[in-house]
């Protein structure tokens, strides 16, 4: 599960259907070559996901239709993920908890039951190279909820063993965004993974 799949649960089913109606269907295929234009699209949208197709086309020196088709393909192939972050302290879920755990991760049905039973889970990531083989990221409404979280997780997935837990009261950066104390974006850090870090 990715954080891009997590929902705030603020929209009703009709509203959710409306905003996803025009989304390209996901159909991961054989990886394609990520071109220089794809890189520019990725970096540009990382800086401002609301950049218009007109502006993207102008920066790339191609037509709007070309940009639209390429974006649709990148999204459908899951080469590019779009996500909308919220100001965590302002949305009613101000507490973040990271949990390192061990469980049989080959049992997909059991993991799906866990995700369904604890909808506050934002991400569940497989790990390698240590005792913990799962990292679970959870958003909570209060510190009080953190106390009962471990028992909720192990009730949903009895074979889960929680190894460690950390509570974060505030993030200063998320997904390339520098955040103010209220969790709002105030600036960006370019996420150009192809550039030389020196």
TrEMBL record:
Any single biological process term in GO: response to amino acid
Highest taxon above the source species: Bacteria
Q: Which GO terms describe its cellular component?
A: cytosol
Q: Please name the GO terms that the record assigns under molecular function.
A: sequence-specific DNA binding
N-terminal signal peptide = none
Name of protein: Lrp/AsnC family transcriptional regulator
- Supply the InterPro entries for this chain: Tscrpt_reg_AsnC-like, WH-like_DNA-bd_sf
């Amino acid at each position: 599960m990715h954080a891009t799949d997590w929902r705030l649960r603020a929209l009703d089913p009709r509203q959710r259907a409306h905003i996803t109606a025009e989304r390209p269907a996901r159909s991961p295929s054989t990886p394609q070559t990520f071109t220089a234009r794809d890189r520019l699209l990725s970096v540009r949208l990382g800086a401002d996901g609301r950049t218009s197709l007109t502006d993207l086309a102008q920066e790339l020196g191609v037509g709007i239709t070309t940009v639209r088709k390429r974006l649709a393909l990148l999204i459908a192939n899951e080469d590019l993920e779009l996500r909308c972050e919220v100001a965590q302290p302002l949305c009613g879920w101000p507490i973040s908890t990271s949990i390192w755990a061990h469980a049989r991760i080959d049992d997909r049905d059991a993991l799906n039951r866990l995700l369904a039973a604890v909808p506050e889970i934002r991400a569940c990531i497989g790990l390698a190279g240590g005792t913990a083989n799962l990292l679970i990221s959870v958003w909570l409404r209060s510190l009080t909820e953190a106390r009962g979280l471990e028992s909720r997780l192990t009730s949903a997935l009895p074979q889960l063993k929680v190894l460690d837990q950390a509570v974060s009261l505030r993030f200063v950066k998320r997904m390339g965004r520098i955040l103010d104390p209220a969790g709002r974006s105030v600036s960006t850090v370019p996420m150009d993974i192809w550039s030389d870090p020196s």
